[in-house]
Amino acid sequence: MPSHSSASNKKAKLSSSSKTTSSSTSGPNPSILRFEGHLHLRQRLLLATISGRTVRIDKIRQNEDEFPGLADYEVSFLRLLEKLTNGSHLEISYTGSSLLYKPGVITGGKITHDCPPSRAIGYFLEPLIAIAPFAKVAFHLTLNGITNDNVDICVDTLRTVTLPTLKKFLPSIETSNAPLDLKITKRGAPPLGGGQVIFQCPIIKSLKPGVLLTDPGLGVKRIRGIAYATRISPQMANRVVDSARSLLSRYIPDVYLYTDVYKGAESGKGPGYGVSLVAETTTGVLYSAEWIVGHLQNDYTFPTPEDLGIRAARVLLTEIRKGGCVDANSQWLAILLLALGPEDVGKVRVGTLTPFSIQLLRDLKQFLGVVFKIGEEPQEEGTVVLTCLGTGYVNVNKNVT
């Protein structure tokens, strides 16, 4: 769920700082958690759905004159949560600047949702990956919209990095009978979209106990990647691959990048191309980087494929240099799953904590009462180890067989 975009940073500067206050001191109902501001809205709705806590969020963009209140993609995400749950209660004020969300039972099942073109599919799918294992019925979710952009996490990174991170916390016995898969059936470049993905996830009773993600390995052993092109010449993807490989091969020889060109109905509604890179260490730690080009115009203002390939390769090398056992895009998921794990000690080593992860640590204390111990690791400079005792979260929605 990290936005990892310049657009979200600009929104953060325009809005007032997000403030949190417990309703036990400011409201008549102590069971309702109260927050202010639109920042971290998805994160708080996710934690409310998992914990079953009622949440009220006020002062949502109330100081913005042009577009006050909830945005269209935030309302769409709330409607998606209503589809995936049973018994949820949602109240939105007339101006859209405040909402009350009382979560219901996570039902899952076969759901189809159309995402607005203002945000990519990754905005909606990313938090649902953490909810899916605790549903009543296995997820079979179909999302339509933009598959790749530079604002939200791309579906390729979700498939190659986020899902393997989730799998490390799932019991292997329970995942053998149901798939954990993300299939990209159609590509959709901004601004028109037209893409489609299908997400499937098994259900579990509880997470794996005592997960320790502390060994980053001896170094990167291989780098893989995919360069794609939609409604544009396939040579664009080939040029991206050549430029990215020219830089990455100087770091490690085992580099394999392949192209994925979509034509016809599978190519969405607009032209675009991009690349997604993944580096794997000797212990299976994954680091990711991505970059795309959309909104193609005829004024030659967009970067060349060579520039895009070099830029993505440098972002990947920067992510590798940060170290840790999870990359910046998956920090939040590892932290959340450690807090939801059985009553055992879990550890994860991360590089630089992202602002999103820092806020998640604060919200976890309010929603679940979990406090992490943060300590620097002298052997690995620049990394910190997060340690916590799991809450013993059990999926009460799953049928007993």
Query: What is the number of strand segments?
Result: 19
Mean pLDDT: 88
β-strand percent reads: 25-35%
Main sheet strand line-up: 1-2-3-6-5
Topology as H/E string? HEHEHEHEEEEEHEHEEEEHEEEHHEHEE
> Percent range for helical residues?
25-40%
For the report, how would you describe the main beta sheet?
A: 5 strands, mixed
Tell me the structural class: alpha+beta
Radius of gyration of CA atoms, rounded to a whole number: 21 Å
Describe the 3D structure.
With 401 residues, this protein is of the alpha+beta class. 29% of the residues lie in helices and 27% in strands. It has ten helices and 19 strands. It has helices at residues 6-14, 23-26, 41-51, 72-84, 121-131, 155-167, 235-248, 305-322, 331-340, 355-367; strands at 19-22, 32-36, 54-58, 85-86, 89-92, 99-102, 105-106, 108-114, 137-145, 181-186, 195-201, 212-213, 220-230, 255-262, 272-281, 286-293, 345-350, 373-376, 384-389. Strands 1-2-3-6-5 form a five-stranded mixed β-sheet. A hairpin with a 4-residue loop joins strand 15 and strand 16 (286-293). 44% of the residues are buried.
